[in-house]
């Protein structure tokens, strides 16, 4: 194994003081409701709106401000995202009651959560794609109340028009001009003007992530997301230009983003490093991308493809690209990733925006135990059972003995009385 480039920063980059700051904001919103919400919206976003719900007039104005070409592009992306979500939903079926032994019938129902909030980050640039990726699967799942929020655009009191148009196209039922920890708290506990929800999804900065961590349990969440990351597995047949572009596509997200190349050919590794530097020379987002690449970029050359595969499974990346000669032979060996991009034509950027798969994906090795947001994120599988006299006779004695074994005598009683009353 040869490490052509290693990360400059390897320490945990989470600020431990964030936990306390977030807890204070959540507690104040929980206690003071709209008063605290207004205070924090002014403090953090300079937004002194009295009513934070977006009006129809604001949505109409946003559509007037956005070009028809962009609107058509957003609708094109929305169609693909919805189509894939519908096909996913077809795989989630209720299980009709089946008799697993004489007199014992078991089944399950698929039940969408009643309400959810889709958090859409603001930041330096609008992120309308994140609105599509969270709202559309929730609507396809059958969630009755899908609300969303995003911080106001700089020097305004409303959401960026591109994001607002995307929220409308996606079908949000309520749209709020707010962001940050205070929004997470308001959607969890509710205020006089905001009804709480049952689940919160969507990416955010480290404060939003910590807020989701702290309210988890009071409300459902998708997962805790960190800086964006991509791993590319490549062999000698890969295209260095494509790989360099894809590594930078992740690096420009955030100074903490990670672009990682695991390859089996030293020449490819060196060519990618050179191409990254060439691209950075005139990339308009080079200030962030270069910092991320220097701090977190990694290029490692392995003796065998198996070693690269094992390393990728250990990293469990958000995005995993497979640029090798025989990808179909490798796919079954890959087990930990948020979304997989097979072959050099399947650029990660397509999944970010328009192909139809979701881009709200697990980071920080969470792909070891969960996938990304999808229509199933908003659907519960709830089991049911039904017994006849024959079933009670068969299983009640066993239940009674096991309850006695565990010292749960009311459990034993509940089984015994059913036998006795037959």
From TrEMBL:
Cofactor: binding details: Binds 1 zinc ion per subunit.
GO cellular component, one term: cytosol
GO molecular function, one term: NAD binding
SUPFAM superfamilies hit by this protein: ALDH-like
Binding site for Zn(2+): 250, 253, 352, 411
EC assignment: 1.1.1.23
Top-tier EC class: oxidoreductase
Entries under InterPro entries matching the protein: Ald_DH/histidinol_DH, Histidinol_DH_CS, Histidinol_DH_monofunct, Hstdl_DH
UniProt pathway annotation: Amino-acid biosynthesis; L-histidine biosynthesis; L-histidine from 5-phospho-alpha-D-ribose 1-diphosphate: step 9/9
Keyword Coiled coil carried by entry: no
Keywords: Amino-acid biosynthesis, Histidine biosynthesis, Metal-binding, NAD, Oxidoreductase, Zinc
Binding annotation for NAD(+): 119, 182, 205
Catalytic activity field: L-histidinol + 2 NAD(+) + H2O = L-histidine + 2 NADH + 3 H(+)
GO-annotated biological processes: L-histidine biosynthetic process
Active site annotation, chain numbering: 318-319
Binding site for substrate: 228, 250, 253, 319, 352, 406, 411
Highest taxon of source: Bacteria
The keyword Translocase belongs to this UniProt entry's keyword annotation: no
Cofactor: Zn(2+)
Classification via NCBIfam families: hisD
Function: Catalyzes the sequential NAD-dependent oxidations of L-histidinol to L-histidinaldehyde and then to L-histidine.
Family: Belongs to the histidinol dehydrogenase family.
Protein name: Histidinol dehydrogenase
Source organism (scientific name): Biomaibacter acetigenes
Gene coding for it: hisD
